[in-house]
Amino acid sequence: MSFEDLNLHPAIIKAINDLGYTAPTPIQQQAIPELIKGHDVMASAQTGTGKTAAFMLPALNRLATPAKIHGRGPRILVLTPTRELALQVSDATNKYGKYLSRVRVVSILGGMSYVLQNKLLSQTVDILVATPGRLIDHIQRGRIDFSRLEMLVLDEADRMLDMGFVHDVESIASVTPSNRQTLLFSATLDSMIDKIAARLLKSPKRIQVASHRAKLENIEQRLHYVDDLSHKNRLLDHLLRDQSLKQAIVFTATKRDADELADDLAAQGHEAGALHGDMSQRERTRTLTKLRNGRLRILVATDVAARGIDVADITHVINFDLPKFAEDYVHRIGRTGRAGASGIAVSFASGKDSISLKRIERFTGHRITPSVIPGMEPKFKPRLGQNDGKSQRTPHVAHKRNRSWASNEKNVFNHADSNRNSPHKYGRSTANDSRKRSFRRSSQFNSGIYAESSN
Ligand code: AMP
Question: In sequence order, which residues have a C-beta less than 8 Å from that of residue 232 and are 6 or more positions away?
């Protein structure tokens, strides 16, 4: 199948050709015809599958014909869980729509100035890409007219659910016209997603593409057992010296740790920076621009902030701390191996991580083989029978997500703030800080699956 077979407006095909896309991806092949026919669609597709074009090309196709209703409000509304994803969707939209005349794309995100947003919303908007919390604010202040709205897209609906945006998403949907077309994209389609779809979509077509397994094929996954924080730091240092590492994202469990590790790495002479939800939008954008331009080799990030990052040169993802949810592992490692390239994902796991590791392996259906770097072997080895399992071939088993209905990212991700009370001041960290941190965090390594080796 080619893009020409999809009945898209010639101006959209021209933009697609400029981008060098030769054929639609599976999600695009399946979703675009249904969407052009006007059906509601719920699709399981992750970042990296081409899902943005799958919904945005039909959305732009609608804009190729004039609106039936006069007004200034958006004709297309895309809701995303994070600011980064919203910006990425906006960027992609501008690329796909560049030959269509007068398509105005506006992003409304938390952390940005209301004054600027009020100005943006006072003019005609065709496509509005927004995070739910801030959009609700503007709706409550009567700043958005949805009378022209034709299409509502819920992007990464599972993550919006996890972040407690369900009420906000439903409130937003309730003020849009009931004859709208509604699309829901989610990494997985489970019973919670089904419930939301039943409330917001009309007889949706269900589309399922590439499983987690298929998607990870081009990513080599490695595991290093670690004894303590200083062991992690030594391994990290070793990995970062590898010449084949062009750019890497290093994931930490907390925002504090992201700051501290980025500071430590910068102090060691690496081009490193942090990215997390406590940074202002301006700082986040600046850091991401540096990453895209290749001026930042190492990004130290938390899950929420790094979700959706699409930078072709990221050769390595390093899980300095394992993610809390198995699904985040897939999102994390999907930051490498973009657009068909191969990538390397390295995870550090300590005794306390045995359950997380098992969940990840069950979720991906892939056992991660432990690796050892000569001279940096762990003192502790996993006990026989613990995490020595054969490849778990069970398909995805829905793990317990945090279904908090609080509409605040911090409530749901409070594990990311768990060190907040410790007295560290932001800024450059010192060797003394590192030692304290090493001491503080070493207590996390006491429990678990390790049996002491002979020494
Ligand atoms: P997404 O899943 O929307 O985040 O897209 C992942 C990456 O695939 C982005 O870099 C897109 O530019 C790229 N992409 C989307 N559709 C195609 C296509 N049909 N052919 C090649 N690359 C594509």
Answer: 226, 320, 348
Neighbours of 384 (CB within 10 A): 8
Global pTM? 0.59
Give kind and range of the element (H or E) at residue 317: strand 314-319
Torsion angle, CA of 19/24/27/32, rounded to 10 degrees?
A: 100
Instruction: Among 21, 27, 218, 307, say which to mutate for ligand 1: greatest number of ligand atoms within 8 Å of CB.
Output: 21
From first to last of the 455 residues of the chain, give the pLDDT tens digit. 899 999 999 999 999 999 988 889 889 999 999 999 999 999 988 777 789 999 999 999 999 998 888 899 999 999 999 998 999 999 999 999 999 988 999 999 988 899 999 999 999 999 999 999 999 999 999 999 999 999 999 999 988 988 889 999 999 999 999 999 999 999 878 888 999 999 999 999 999 875 544 567 788 999 999 999 999 999 999 999 999 999 999 999 999 999 999 999 999 999 999 999 889 888 988 999 999 999 999 999 998 777 778 888 899 999 999 998 887 898 899 888 876 678 999 999 998 898 889 888 877 778 898 999 999 999 877 644 444 433 333 333 233 333 222 222 222 222 332 332 333 322 333 334 443 343 333 333 322 222 222 22
User: Contact 395/231 with Cβ under 8 angstroms?
Assistant: no
Whether the CB of 310 sits within 6 Å of ligand 1: yes
Q: How far is the CA of 310 from the centre of ligand 1 (A)?
A: 9
Counts of helices then strands in the chain (DSSP H, E): 18, 15
Q: Is 102 exposed, middle or buried (0-12, 13-18, 19+ CB in 10 A)?
A: exposed
Q: Which two tokens stand for residue 365?
A: 């259906």
C-beta 181 within 6 A of ligand 1 = no
Strand partners, 301: 251, 275
Tokens 């009020």 correspond to 118
Mutate to test the pocket of ligand 1, among 3, 12, 44, 52 (most ligand atoms within 8 A of CB): 52
- Closest residue by Cα to atom 14, ligand 1, is 50
Domains within the chain, CATH numbers bracketed: 3-208 (3.40.50.300), 219-414+422-454 (3.40.50.300)
- Residue 131 exposed, middle or buried by CB count within 10 Å (0-12, 13-18, 19+): buried
Compute the distance from residue 216 Cα to the ligand 1 centre, in Å.
16
